[in-house]
Amino acid sequence: MNTPGILKALEGMHHIFTPITADRVVMESTLIFTQLLRDVIMKKGETSIETINLFWNHVDGRESTPLYDVYNQLIAQLGLSLMQSQVKNSTRFRKESEANSKMVFRSTVLPPDERLMKACQLDLFINEFLKIIQL
Question: 7-41 burial, b for 16+ CB within 10 Å, e for fewer?
Answer without folding.
Answer: eeebeeeeebbbebebeeeebeebbeebeebbeeb
